[in-house]
Amino acid sequence: MGRKFNKRGQEGKKKGGKVMDAAQLARKILNFLDNNFGQEFNAKQIIKKLEIRDSLTKGAVESVMHKLAAAGSISKSPRNYFASIKEPEFIEGEVDYVNPRFAYIRPDAKYEMEEDILVKEADLKHALDGDKVRVMVYPSKGSTGRIEGKVLEITKRLRDEFVGRVEISPRYAFVVPDFRKMHHDVFVHKGDLNGAEHNQKVVVKISEWRDEDKNPTGKVIRVLGKAGEHEVEIHSIMAEFGLPFEYPKDVEEEANAIPDEIPSSEIKNRKDMRDIPTFTIDPVDAKDFDDAISYRKLENGNYEIGVHIADVTYYVKPKSGLEREAFDRATSVYLVDRTIPMLPERLSNGLCSLRPNEDKLTFSCVFEMDENADVLKHWIGRTVTHSNRRFAYEEAQENIDNQEGDFYQELTFLNELAKKLRKRRFDKGAVNFETVEVKFKLDEKGTPLGLMIKERKDIHKLIEEFMLLANRTVAEFVYNRNKGKDTFVYRIHDNPDSEKLETFANFAKKFGHELKLGEGTRVSTVLNRLMDEIVGKPEQNVLEQLAIRSMAKAKYTTEPKGHFGLAFKHYTHFTSPIRRYPDMMVHRLLQHYLDEGKSPDAESWEEKCLHSSDREKRAADSERASIKYKQVEYMALAEEKDYDGIVTGVTEWGVYVEITETKCEGLVKVSEMNDDYYDFDEKNMRLIGTRNKKIITLGDKVMVRVVNTDIDRRTIDLEFADNEPKQKRRK
């Protein structure tokens, strides 16, 4: 947080402002007119707008403007009003509403603009975060040194419903939104409260927002309940991200009408693998078993490993209600205390789930492999299978570790194969993105009793490797069929942007880790070395998260590109159709090609890919929000003590610190740091004390205490332990 100085300085106080020469004045006038394209100004207005105070420069303004007009640099009206003649650029993009004062517009990819466009709040035309807008870009950069613009039209609202807390006064009411990027309270007439009471959480729908109104007007459409209660807060997150609360009645009825029995005619059309030893391995609390593995030794000494996936598309037909709902949801969402499934329970936990001791319809990749994990041949097609055993991850790992129990020999051998597949993948350039995952232990009311860090063991990696093998095999099979010309759904991951990598390298350096990214260096090797270095260190979580953010985002597309992170030339998602719509798309296209069908038009499939990628982001954002809510609640209930932490971010308004013990991040506000006045050094991302010269920078190990938690905003306020303690405030 830097000091504020008088813009005029001492010279301005004595002489009424700095005198400009004609060239300086001309540049200033041109820049101002360009940035106010479409508006006319006379000399008096220009003097006022440019805050010209000295009499000599004031007297020169009109003359300079006439000379600019005579030279054709600006236009002049008969009334002596002047305007810019430059043509602005018009683009479309998405709003990133940073704070109440301004937003950035991220231009659509087709414009190939390297910089986002800054738009001041007064020029946003009431556009909100995530809205699609049409923008007029000013010809010259503004006083901020950035490209600036003005919203002309909102082409698509991302949302018109918001979750927030009702504040009721005698004559009117407001809903204060929880969403941090919604910077306007919503005015609600008393008659539109829908029974909501003061301080309750509600969903409000914006009904009107006139140009002249500072705040939108809305109506309460759903009362969620008392703020702070677990169920209310989870429902708030669901409503905030537009997650569904229930299935349409017709979809539930359609699911319930599907018969339990598999027709014998269907079994005859499939490869029957029911006699081969088969098992599932999933989390202990899972109910939707997407995948199973079969194992047997062949007479020729090789091994047959089958990856069997629930055949969801046998039950979910195109143009059905189930199909419509599955497409709309596109993915299951895993909040901190519940799953919001893509498919109704009748399918996800019943008909499609590969439960033990039941015949199931599956889509399979069957591999013949040798003991070196080389795939000698493979077969892809529809099957009927029968799981002999359902394992939880922990149970299967114990059988390997103790060398006893059901299928321990098969599990041990599969683990050896998986390790070889994994090593081969990393040798070819895969990146080892291991992330720290926090899981909460909740009581029956949803209150967090404790948290634990999920540990990835060999058994998790075993399942991962065989699923990756199946996904890659399916993608390569379709690609090789017609050299990539057949329409298909791929999961792609572009190579990282060199600039983002450099930024990440500079960040890692502040934690004491050197990344050598010179020409000819293999990026994956450098990143993997770093990931190995930071295991068990306080900075592990933050650097893993930042490494992932510095990468391109994986997405679904019909373009047959590669996957950088996995080091695969072609990759898809085939193995989780119960919880991901793209896998259903893959199953349909795959069977179409197995039946020797012609390639369909790619356009409609690409639209579905875009929708699926958007829904994937929504799911990830809502999952993070539910974890953050529980982190805030957990820290509100946690022991009042000083915690070890690590500085993960430095801004002019404060220092972000991740508490090492709980992986919860909070903010130490600069305004609350009472030991000194701190200046923000933006270039080096650090704060420097004016008197004591104390430096606070990224990677610093610090001690902090919690001073405030806000459930609504999902924020944790901290202070440094060496600050003078303040009374703890919680809400």
From TrEMBL:
Superkingdom: Bacteria
Localisation per UniProt entry: Cytoplasm
Keywords: Cytoplasm, Exonuclease, Hydrolase, Nuclease, RNA-binding
Reaction(s) catalysed (UniProt annotation): Exonucleolytic cleavage in the 3'- to 5'-direction to yield nucleoside 5'-phosphates
EC number: 3.1.13.1
PROSITE patterns in the cross-refs: RIBONUCLEASE_II, S1
Pfam families: CSD2, OB_RNB, RNB, S1
Chain ranges of the S1 motif domain: 640-721
Molecular function via GO: exoribonuclease II activity
Main localisation: cytoplasm
Entry's family note: Belongs to the RNR ribonuclease family. RNase R subfamily.
Cited function: 3'-5' exoribonuclease that releases 5'-nucleoside monophosphates and is involved in maturation of structured RNAs.
Protein name: Ribonuclease R
Organism: Shivajiella indica
